[in-house]
UniProtKB/TrEMBL annotation:
Lineage: superkingdom: Eukaryota
Organism of derivation: Chilo suppressalis (Asiatic rice borer moth)
Protein name: Nose resistant-to-fluoxetine protein N-terminal domain-containing protein
Residue span, Nose resistant-to-fluoxetine protein N-terminal domain: 43-232
Keywords for the protein's UniProt record, in alphabetical order: Membrane, Signal, Transmembrane, Transmembrane helix
N-terminal signal peptide: 1-19
Signal found in the keyword field: yes
Transmembrane segments annotated in the record for this chain: 238-258, 301-324, 344-371, 392-410, 455-475, 482-503, 527-549, 561-585, 605-622, 642-665
Pfam families per the UniProt record, alphabetical: Acyl_transf_3, NRF
Record bears the keyword Transmembrane: yes
Length: 749
């Protein structure tokens, strides 16, 4: 069990793709300046500066030591990472003699498994005095039991202190007995997978290996040390993406200022009717767009419960990402988080990935529900280009905004010792922005997706592109052909995905302890991000959308027994989907048939339960559930849900990327972080919706099918004149009728 724990912690979180940031010096738009790191290196100057620091400046030496390497805190809890003091290190800057000594922050990796290990006495450099090391009394002998048994015995571990500083910490872990040392790093031993990641603070002219070999050549010359990354002040180069982002957002800001000024002058200062204002001139107005955003017009055909379903699903996604993102960060107690994730009480987190299928259901349902009453099969074929173009342009503003923010502002907004994930996302967006805007990123560059969570948008758009194959028959006059097309589409997709799943033999849990790293990677890239095994909920949603279309404006009578049975079936389906995760992620789970069945049928089953929930709430069988899902607060979150989905994940990474020390995991702390992540996402989404999404949506509507303001005003005037001309004949007719009635009643007019 310990082996599986350490393997999991060593993998980090697979969803973050690679654990390290690969910077290509041939690429000129990296998030970090690769050439800057190479240009500052000077081994001779490094030796000279280190000699000066060690011999002449104790204060400067203490600054480097204080900002640099320490023994990781919480090794008994699975933490093998120390982050030093990032800003203190980069703040070192001293001019002495003819030298400029500046700090450089580096992260080095020390694998516990080494080919050859020698533990010499600390050397004395030829021209540098010996470094004074603290006199620490070590345990006389290594414990007789293997360390794995010690870790399994928590009571013994509490009495055995591993918080020790200095080079002898490695001796303590490996032991003095060479034979015992080799057994502890042999294949199959959990210790063989341990890698210490330590922060070192060096003069910027030094590389970690050069500096360490200068100080202790006989010690560090015999062990393997990997340089993960180094950071310098102002190491984020200015690239073309920064210029493009600033220009575009500056133009939008100027348009917003001018449009809002015009709107306020027209509606507030001059007190004119807002309806008489130019729609074009007020399209970027914060005043008008905010008023529209908080205005809800009643619609008898609206499925109000969908706002609540969409909002709860979005909240659930943010909760899941708040917890899961911590797996990609240094944790002070990762074993505690592991114990939580593998416990029954964490099912509301480990099962959260199924909630994304809720969005697929809603998308397919609304597509049929809204289009079926507006188009016919012939009109769909004739306007197929507008069908696709409207969808692409509708999703473009927010998505393009998120990409622009990621390639520039998100990388510069702040900094921290664990900035690699943000830099990696920035690099991916600078290289593969085009695949995201074309919605093919899950198929073309799944391992390097710009906005790693945007795979959902790609699958949703691909399903939308395929939907006319079914919509053509749904929009026809024959209900029979519509039912055949919808049923056939659902069966074909489920059958094809089932064959694919049974052949590929994927794991079914998000974290499967019984599977290898290779299996986990296959699961994410070939199943979780792939179109075929994820598209079935969309077509199930289309089927329920047609049901809702047929029942629009009608009263549906269902027996109480049937309603209760359907509610029980939907609840039991959801419960089985959740509870299955608890068993399939266990270390002793070994049933590929069940895994394949779950991968093939649990998502369409979940989609069917969401479809029934929507139908029941819309037709009066939801009771208090419908009341709750139809609350007005969910209308606001429903309007923000698209922007929240796009923006929340990069913002979570930025918040966590500023951590200066390993985070101590607890459920209470994670819930507190969720509220922060949620509020930041709401505020950012509101700003993007009002400032960018609504203005561009209005412009797109005007270009694709709207009328100009002049034509609209002329038409309004003509209609008013026509109505005025009709007033006199109507009055004369009414007077004549009145005279006839009065004369018949003997009343003189």
């Amino acid at each position: 069990m310990l082996y599986l724990k350490l393997i999991l912690l060593n993998i980090v979180f697979i969803k973050t793709m690679d654990a390290s940031l690969v910077l290509d010096p041939l690429v000129n738009n990296n998030a970090f300046d690769v050439n800057l790191y190479e240009e500052v290196l000077d081994p001779a100057e490094c030796a000279r500066q280190i000699e000066y620091i060690l011999t002449n400046d104790t204060t400067l030496l203490s600054q480097f030591l204080d900002a640099g390497v320490r023994t990781p805190r919480g090794m008994l809890e699975g933490n093998f990472v120390d982050m030093g003091n990032y800003f203190q290190c980069l703040g070192i800057n001293k001019e002495v003699r003819d030298m400029s000594i500046e700090g450089k922050y580096c992260a080095i990796e020390f694998p516990l498994k080494q080919d050859e290990l020698k533990w010499p006495t600390l050397p004395t450099l030829p021209e540098i005095p010996e470094i004074p090391w603290p006199n620490i009394t070590w345990p006389p002998t290594w414990p007789s039991e293997p360390l794995t048994q010690k870790i399994l015995d928590e009571e013994k571990l509490k009495n055995y202190n591993l918080f020790i500083r200095g080079r002898d910490n490695l001796k303590l872990l490996l032991g003095d007995d060479p034979e015992l040392s080799l057994s502890r790093v042999a294949e199959g031993n959990p210790l063989a997978n341990i890698r210490f990641q330590l922060a070192v603070c060096l003069p910027k002219v030094c590389s970690p290996k050069t500096a360490l070999q200068i100080i202790t050549p006989s010690f560090f010359g015999n062990i393997s040390i990997n340089e993960n990354y180094c950071r310098l002040k102002n190491d984020k180069p200015w690239v073309a993406a920064d210029t493009v982002a600033i220009v575009i957002f500056s133009v939008i800001g100027l348009l917003t200022l001018l449009s809002t000024s015009y709107d306020l002058r027209h509606s507030v200062l001059l007190e004119r009717d807002p309806k008489e204002a130019s729609k074009l001139y007020t399209s970027f107005s914060v005043y008008t767009n905010s008023r529209k955003f908080f205005t809800f017009r009643p619609n008898p055909n609206a499925l109000t419960c969908l706002d609540g379903i969409r909002s709860i699903a979005m909240i659930w996604v943010i909760v899941g990402h708040t917890f899961s993102t911590q797996l990609s960060l240094p944790l002070a107690n990762p074993l505690h988080m592991f114990d939580f994730l593998t416990s029954f009480t964490s099912l509301w987190i480990t099962g959260a990935n199924i909630t994304v299928d809720t969005f697929f259901v809603i998308s397919g349902l609304l597509l049929v529900y809204t289009v079926a009453s507006k188009l016919t099969s012939i009109n769909l074929i004739k306007n197929l280009h507008l069908f696709y173009l409207n969808r692409l342009l509708r999703m473009f503003p927010v998505l393009a905004t998120a990409i622009l923010l990621q390639v520039s502002f998100f990388n510069r907004i702040t900094d921290g010792p664990f900035w690699e994930p943000i830099a990696r996302n920035t690099n991916n967006c600078r290289q593969y922005w085009w695949s995201t805007l074309l919605y093919v990123q899950n198929l073309v560059n799944a391992r390097n997706m710009c906005l790693s969570h945007s795979w959902y948008l790609a699958i949703d758009m691909q399903a939308y592109i395929l939907s006319p194959l079914v919509l053509f028959w749904v929009l026809g006059r024959s209900k029979k052909s519509a039912w055949i097309a919808l049923t056939a589409a659902v069966l074909i997709v489920i059958t094809a995905s089932s064959i694919y799943n049974f052949l590929m033999e994927f794991q079914s849990a998000f974290i499967a302890l019984s599977r290898s790293l290779e299996d986990a990677m296959r699961y994410y890239f070939d199943y979780y991000f792939h179109t075929l095994p994820r598209i079935s909920p969309f077509f199930v949603g289309m089927l329920f959308g047609y049901v809702m279309h047929l029942c629009k404006g009608k009263t549906i009578r269902l027996s109480k027994v049937l309603v209760v049975m359907l509610w029980i079936l939907a609840g039991a389906t959801n419960f089985c989907v959740f509870i299955s995760t608890y068993f399939t992620m266990k270390a002793d789970w070994d049933n590929q048939t069940v895994d394949s069945i779950l991968n093939s049928f649990m998502r369409p089953a979940w989609a069917a339960s969401i479809g029934w929930l929507t139908f029941a709430c819309a037709k009066g069988y939801g009771g208090p559930i419908n009341w709750f899902l139809s609350l007005h607060i969910f209308k606001i979150l429903g309007r923000l849900s698209y922007a929240m989905y796009i923006l929340h994940y990069p913002l979570i990474y930025i918040i966590y990327g500023t951590a200066l020390a390993p985070i101590y995991f607890s459920v209470e702390y994670s819930i507190q972080r969720f509220f922060i992540d949620f509020m930041v996402a709401v505020i950012a989404s509101y700003l993007v919706t009002v400032l960018i999404d609504m203005p561009f949506s209005q412009l797109i509507g005007m270009v694709l099918g709207g009328q100009s303001d002049q034509k609209r005003n002329d038409k309004k005037k003509n209609d008013d004149l026509k109505r005025a001309d009709d007033v006199v004949p109507r009055l004369e007719t009414d007077l004549n009728k009145t005279e006839v009635v009065n004369s018949q009643n003997g009343i003189k007019s």
